[in-house]
Write a structure and sequence with these properties.
CATH superfamily: Vaccinia Virus protein VP39
CATH class: Alpha Beta
Largest sheet: 10 strands, mixed
Number of strands: 10
Distance between the termini: 39 Å
Order of helices and strands: HHHEHEHEEHEHEEHEHEE
Radius of gyration: 18 Å
Shape: globular
Strand content: 15-25%
Structural class: alpha/beta
CATH topology: Rossmann fold
Bound molecules: S-adenosylmethionine
Length: 262
């Protein structure tokens, strides 16, 4: 098996695990930065055609349906589609992979969302394919919003005790959790990729079961611009625009399809 196939298979398996599906099924919140960006976009996307990629248990379905009933949600994990369908039986939900959006015509959506770092679970080449596909299905002037793991974060790829010792219960619990999963973590690390542009690493998400893509703001901006997006904005986890950020584990992005072909 190539490393690329390993990454894809391990992540698909991780997301299909009943425990992980249940975890997403129970999420019910809107992140502060999501609110800041969506509030700013509301006049442009209210009652417009929206595509939600990687819906998990439907956390984003809830708030996007409030913005527009012209909503389509997709996920490559069938159990996630079933979980969301139980909550929103009338919503348009499909099992579909972000790497191949050919079921959707070009220039259709005013807004595409890939939330909670869902874009980070495909290989680098596939990530570039996802960006191209999203650009294709967006209307000219349409918006793409997503978040991704920040490789410039000061504690990138550090185990809890490598971040500095703290004397509190949360720190102790985190250390015990990590120790319990260390054998698995060492096995998963064999699949890691580290390059100048990005890294794919086994972090602590869902019991160290996934391989997650991490990228800094300069590199993510360059990827989006190379794919053909314009007006790229990066936001930290408090909802402030940033050019560089070592303090946030994730970065949110908003980018636009140009009004006219370049
Ligand atoms: C981190 S969860 C986010 C769930 C939900 N969007 C939320 O914000 O609560 C990522 C979701 O993306 C899905 N996913 C990952 N890669 C995908 C891909 N290539 N195509 C479609 N869905 C994908 C996973 O199955 C998972 O449900």
């Amino acid at each position: 098996m190539t490393r690329q196939t390993d990454i894809d298979d391990l992540n698909k398996r991780g997301y299909a695990s009943p425990k992980v599906v249940d975890w997403y099924d129970e999420l019910d919140f809107t992140h502060q930065t999501e609110r800041v960006i969506l509030d700013s976009l509301l006049p442009a996307i209210k009652n417009q055609k929206l595509l939600d990629i990687g819906i998990g248990g439907g956390r984003t379905t809830k708030f996007l349906l409030e913005i527009s009933r012209d909503y389509i949600g997709i996920d490559y994990t069938a159990a996630c589609i079933e979980a969301t369908r139980r909550k929103y039986p009338r919503a348009d939900l499909f099992c579909c992979d972000a790497r191949d959006l050919s079921i959707f015509p070009a220039d259709g959506f005013a807004f595409v969302l890939f939330s909670l770092n869902g874009i980070d679970y495909v290989t680098h080449e596939d990530r570039l394919r996802v960006l191209k596909e999203v650009l294709r299905v967006l209307r000219p002037g349409g918006f793409f919003m997503f978040s991704t793991h920040n490789r410039d974060y000061r504690y990138f790829n550090k185990l809890p005790w490598q971040e500095g010792i703290r004397l509190n219960l949360g720190f102790l619990k985190n250390c015990l959790y990590t120790v319990a999963f260390l054998p698995k973590h060492f096995r998963m690390q064999r699949h890691e990729i580290h390059t100048d542009e990005y890294a794919i690493v086994n972090d602590n998400a869902h019991g160290f079961s996934l391989l997650s893509y991490y990228v800094g703001i300069d590199q993510q901006r360059a990827q989006l611009e190379a794919a053909g997006f314009v007006d790229v904005e990066a936001y930290d986890m408090e909802g402030s625009k940033v050019e560089h950020d070592r303090d946030s584990p994730w970065t949110y992005y908003l980018a636009r399809k140009p009004l006219f072909p370049g």
